[in-house]
Amino acid sequence: MELGEKLKAIRKAKNISLQNLSDATVKTSQTRISVSFLSDIENGRSNPSIDRLKIIAKALNTSVSYFIEDSETTLFGGAIEDTEFLPVIELLRDFKDWSIEDKKELLYYLKAKKVIRDNK
């Protein structure tokens, strides 16, 4: 998935319009990234500088690495290309800060869900 496709996917998964993203960039960095430039990025007509990519990532509460890593090298592999999976990834970003009880509960749920799927 290309950078522009990733930008569009995460923006849509978070239900953020181009205008709202543009507004968020100025709130997080004092630098507004225009709607037209964001659209150009999403449609592959422009590539942002690293500095602008950092601003966009911060406005979307994600990391720059989300945009530049190959999906094969990420923890979630091909799942990153499934835009329905993006909200799950966002929820797991702070997993390291979860309590051990919460981590165990999630693991228990995922194992139970797999057993149910496997036995259908």
Automatic annotation (TrEMBL):
Keywords in alphabetical order: DNA-binding
Protein origin, superkingdom: Bacteria
GO molecular function: DNA binding; DNA-binding transcription factor activity
InterPro entries, per database record: Cro/C1-type_HTH, Lambda_DNA-bd_dom_sf, TransReg_Diox_bact_type
Gene Ontology CC terms: cytosol
Domain HTH cro/C1-type, residue spans: 7-67
Gene3D superfamilies membership: lambda repressor-like DNA-binding domains (1.10.260.40)
PROSITE patterns assigned: HTH_CROC1
Residue ranges that the Swiss-Prot or TrEMBL entry lists as coiled coil: none
CDD domains: HTH_XRE (cd00093)
A Pfam family matched in the record: HTH_3
Signal sequence annotation: none
Keyword DNA-binding part of the UniProt annotation: yes
Protein name per the record: Transcriptional regulator
Taxonomic source organism: Clostridium scatologenes
